Structure formats: structure tokens, C-alpha cells
């Protein structure tokens, strides 16, 4: 008689223990790990891990010249956009990521936190793809005009500043160019957004541009622009991206197949219809 009762109690205890363990596991507050900055043209996000379960994160930004500010309050995501709090672009910032359990009045201790690596927008933000605004090839001159990428940083009048407004003469562009279908590349660099280069007349040229921040020691080069070819003496199709060519080709094949198949289908339909009418004409008892 005693044995089953004991067994029952132990079973209950085990069940109870596992419930306690389960809720402990569920409510565990973890501090942020793998904290990284992701910043492109001065739009700056802080990213970290892990996804929170039953707790939330609060991010506090701290510049070496400005006061600490809480920014993303009690969020359950693992990213925080700090762009608007890092407008002093040469300032070095760090962020604290607090891991906060559910709010309670008894618990007024500083929640556990982790500190991000430092980040200085001016020296660390990645420079994005510039756009080729215009180009012309006339005789022996290839003229290229570059559009500066915009940033989320505004002028006093509200319009957005581009990277030239921010970096001024610290920004240089490099134009890399080559004769179409050849591999020998040449490049020129200038603090200007316009290039006039000497080329062979009547030949097609391809090029891309890339920004460089001269004062930087690391990540000096920005992303490369799309590649453009001038298309002199080229087939019109060459200027199109591969996907467009494929879509056009598939479209053409589909139309061709339809043209070929249509008479066959029509013929078959007619035949089966006439077969059906023929059957109808046959007396049912045959
Ligand atoms: C943090 O990064 C390391 C190395 O990349 C990885 O092994 C680890 O799983 C990451 N931690 C989390 C919680 O994602
Ligand atoms: C903990 O989170 C889970 C989902 O992740 C939820 O179902 C559960 O109700 C939460 N528990 C508490 C005590 O908030
Ligand atoms: C492109 O440049 C050429 C020559 O510099 C100029 O005549 C033309 O107006 C420009 N086109 C645009 C869209 O700016
Ligand atoms: C705003 O100010 C900047 C520089 O002061 C100027 O370049 C820009 O044209 C202005 N924008 C407008 C819309 O007035």
C-alpha cells in the first residue's frame, strides 16, 4: 500500500520541480551579446543577440560630449535605430543595452547591461553606392557626372545633406574605366563629382565610381556604383541586364509556341466536336 503512495508523491514533486525549472528558464534575463553597429551613409543601427523571452531591452546612448539618453525603451526587438541621437558626427558614442525583467516597484536596482563597442559616425559609417547621374561620350572625351548619396542628416532648412555636404574636400571619387570587352583597367581620382577623361574615339567604354574618405585609416572606400557602358557601336541588347534579355526571350518563345499550337488546338476541338455530333446522330441502340 505504501509503495504506490510514495511513488505518487515523488511523481508530484518531480512535476512541481519541472514546472519551477520551466518558469525559471522562461524568465531568465540574458544580457546582450554579439553587439554590432550597422551604419550606411550615417543611418546607424545597433544590433545584438539574443531574442528576448519574457524580458525586454532598453538602449541608452552615451556620447563623449553629450548626456546619456534612453532611446529604445523596453523593446522586444534586437535592434535600435540611433541615427537621430548621433548627429554630432565626429563624436564617439557607446550604447548600453539593459535587459529588463517585468516592471516591479520592489526591483529598483540597475538592470544588468552590456556595453557596445564605440562608434564614431564620421570615421566609421559605410559610404553607399554613388549613382551615375549623367555621362556622355563625344569624340575623345568621356564625361561622367556623379550624384552624391544622401544621408538622413538635415540642414537647418530641413533638406537632407548628401555625403559631399558632410565630408566636403575629405571626399574623393575614383572613376575606374576600361575599353569594353578588354581587361586593362585605368582609373582617375578627384575631389570633384565630374570627370572628363581622354579615350579612343568610337570605342565603347565601361566604368564605375567609388567614394573614398581621405582622412580615414580604416574603411576608406565606399561601395562601388553600378557599372555603366557607353554603348557606342554596341548592339542595343548589350545594354540590357541579363534578366530583361531572358524575360524577352521567354516571352518571344511563349508567343511563338502559342502561334504554332493554336491551329492544332482549334483543329482538335473541331474534330472532337464533329465526332461528338456524329455520335449523337448514331441511334442509341447500336
Ligand atoms: C555570437 O557570435 C558567435 C560567433 O559568431 C556565435 O558563435 C554565437 O552563437 C553568437 N551568439 C548568439 C547568441 O547568437
Ligand atoms: C513567457 O513567454 C512566453 C512566450 O515566450 C509566454 O507564453 C508566457 O506567458 C510568458 N510568461 C510570463 C510569466 O510572462
Ligand atoms: C548630360 O550631360 C550633357 C553634356 O554635359 C548635357 O548636355 C545634358 O543636358 C546632361 N543631361 C542631363 C539629364 O543632365
Ligand atoms: C537648404 O540649405 C542648404 C545649405 O544651406 C542649401 O544648399 C539647400 O538648397 C537648401 N534647401 C532648400 C530647399 O532651401
TrEMBL record:
<dbReference type="InterPro" id="IPR001187">
    <property type="entry name" value="Tissue_factor"/>
</dbReference>
<keyword id="KW-0094">Blood coagulation</keyword>
<dbReference type="InterPro" id="IPR013783">
    <property type="entry name" value="Ig-like_fold"/>
</dbReference>
<keyword id="KW-0325">Glycoprotein</keyword>
<feature type="domain" description="Fibronectin type-III">
    <location>
        <begin position="11"/>
        <end position="101"/>
    </location>
</feature>
<comment type="subunit">
    <text>Interacts with HSPE; the interaction, inhibited by heparin, promotes the generation of activated factor X and activates coagulation in the presence of activated factor VII.</text>
</comment>
<dbReference type="InterPro" id="IPR003961">
    <property type="entry name" value="FN3_dom"/>
</dbReference>
<dbReference type="Pfam" id="PF01108">
    <property type="entry name" value="Tissue_fac"/>
</dbReference>
<dbReference type="InterPro" id="IPR015373">
    <property type="entry name" value="Interferon/interleukin_rcp_dom"/>
</dbReference>
<keyword id="KW-0564">Palmitate</keyword>
<dbReference type="Pfam" id="PF09294">
    <property type="entry name" value="Interfer-bind"/>
</dbReference>
<keyword id="KW-0449">Lipoprotein</keyword>
<keyword id="KW-0732">Signal</keyword>
<comment type="function">
    <text>Initiates blood coagulation by forming a complex with circulating factor VII or VIIa. The [TF:VIIa] complex activates factors IX or X by specific limited proteolysis. TF plays a role in normal hemostasis by initiating the cell-surface assembly and propagation of the coagulation protease cascade.</text>
</comment>
<keyword id="KW-1015">Disulfide bond</keyword>
<feature type="signal peptide">
    <location>
        <begin position="1"/>
        <end position="25"/>
    </location>
</feature>
<dbReference type="InterPro" id="IPR050650">
    <property type="entry name" value="Type-II_Cytokine-TF_Rcpt"/>
</dbReference>
<dbReference type="GO" id="GO:0004896">
    <property type="term" value="F:cytokine receptor activity"/>
</dbReference>
<feature type="domain" description="Interferon/interleukin receptor">
    <location>
        <begin position="125"/>
        <end position="230"/>
    </location>
</feature>
<keyword id="KW-0356">Hemostasis</keyword>
<keyword id="KW-1133">Transmembrane helix</keyword>
<protein>
    <recommendedName>
        <fullName>Tissue factor</fullName>
    </recommendedName>
</protein>
<keyword id="KW-0472">Membrane</keyword>
<dbReference type="GO" id="GO:0005886">
    <property type="term" value="C:plasma membrane"/>
</dbReference>
<comment type="similarity">
    <text>Belongs to the tissue factor family.</text>
</comment>
<keyword id="KW-0812">Transmembrane</keyword>
<feature type="transmembrane region" description="Helical">
    <location>
        <begin position="245"/>
        <end position="269"/>
    </location>
</feature>
<dbReference type="GO" id="GO:0007596">
    <property type="term" value="P:blood coagulation"/>
</dbReference>
<dbReference type="InterPro" id="IPR036116">
    <property type="entry name" value="FN3_sf"/>
</dbReference>
Amino acid at each position: 500500500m505504501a509503495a504506490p503512495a510514495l511513488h505518487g508523491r515523488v511523481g508530484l514533486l518531480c512535476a512541481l520541480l519541472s514546472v519551477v525549472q520551466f518558469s525559471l528558464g522562461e524568465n531568465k534575463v540574458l544580457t546582450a551579446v554579439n553587439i554590432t553597429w550597422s551604419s550606411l551613409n550615417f543611418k546607424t543601427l545597433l544590433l545584438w543577440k539574443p531574442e528576448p523571452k519574457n524580458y525586454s531591452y532598453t538602449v541608452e546612448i552615451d556620447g563623449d560630449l553629450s548626456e546619456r539618453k534612453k532611446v529604445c525603451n523596453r523593446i522586444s526587438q534586437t535592434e535600435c535605430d540611433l541615427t537621430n541621437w548621433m548627429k554630432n558626427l565626429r563624436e564617439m558614442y557607446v550604447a548600453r543595452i539593459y535587459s529588463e525583467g517585468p516592471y516591479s516597484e520592489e526591483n529598483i536596482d540597475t538592470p544588468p547591461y552590456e556595453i557596445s563597442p564605440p562608434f564614431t559616425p564620421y570615421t566609421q559609417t559605410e559610404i553607399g553606392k554613388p549613382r551615375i547621374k549623367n555621362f556622355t561620350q563625344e569624340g575623345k572625351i568621356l564625361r561622367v557626372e556623379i550624384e552624391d548619396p544622401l544621408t538622413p542628416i538635415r540642414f537647418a532648412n530641413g533638406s537632407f545633406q548628401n555625403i559631399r555636404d558632410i565630408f566636403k574636400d575629405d571626399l574623393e571619387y575614383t572613376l575606374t574605366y576600361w575599353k569594353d570587352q578588354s581587361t586593362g583597367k585605368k582609373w582617375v581620382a578627384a575631389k570633384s563629382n565630374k570627370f572628363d577623361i581622354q579615350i579612343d574615339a568610337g570605342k565603347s567604354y565601361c566604368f564605375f565610381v567609388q567614394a573614398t574618405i581621405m582622412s580615414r585609416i580604416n574603411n576608406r572606400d565606399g561601395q562601388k556604383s553600378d557599372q555603366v557602358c557607353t554603348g557606342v557601336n554596341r548592339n542595343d541588347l548589350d545594354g540590357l541586364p541579363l534578366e530583361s534579355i531572358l524575360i524577352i526571350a521567354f516571352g518571344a518563345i511563349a508567343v511563338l509556341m502559342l502561334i504554332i499550337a493554336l491551329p492544332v488546338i482549334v483543329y482538335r476541338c473541331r474534330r472532337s466536336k464533329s465526332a461528338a455530333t456524329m455520335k449523337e446522330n448514331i441511334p442509341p441502340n447500336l
